[in-house]
Fold:
Amino acid sequence: MSAVTALFVLKPDVLFGTYVWIDEDPDLPACRIHTYLPTMRKPIQVVDRLAFDCLPLTDIGYLDLMAWPHPALRLVPADPGVSPVSGTPGRTVTRCYTGPAGLRVNELLTPRQGLVVCRTVHHGDQEVRRWEVVEQGSAEEDWLPRRLSVARLQSGHRTDFIRTSPALPISHEAFDAEPQSLRDTVEQRLHTWQE
Structure:
């Protein structure tokens, strides 16, 4: 089993063509992250130490897009006094990971669906980023979140993301193509939905 996650920027026009492409294979374990901005000559591979940071021009972390925990993260017993967030609706389970250079990642997930609903990233004792599902999608949408909130606690910066379309299926074969081809398929699918 493997996963491909792709994020495309369609607007504003000046950023059209920007993408992040994540290939994961938990059996190896391997994770390859490539990103491209229109100002680049060619896509670059994101090295491991940068994989724990944010995508260009946003507060969303590469970890937040990945299907599985990054291979450099090691599962550790949860500290009973540490929870990524209080007041999360429904029953959740806490998972904790440690990583290189004092990195710690705490996650809350729903055991029934296995979905992460909150993630905090710490460097040493400092919480540097919090990602949280504010509004969950329905079962018919594979629980794809409707609203996300991301905050950087050091700067006080917070960004809210709202999904404005339903979850639209894309054929599995489309993910075997180049990023530009998949982006075209996504654009066509969105255009068809809007009509």
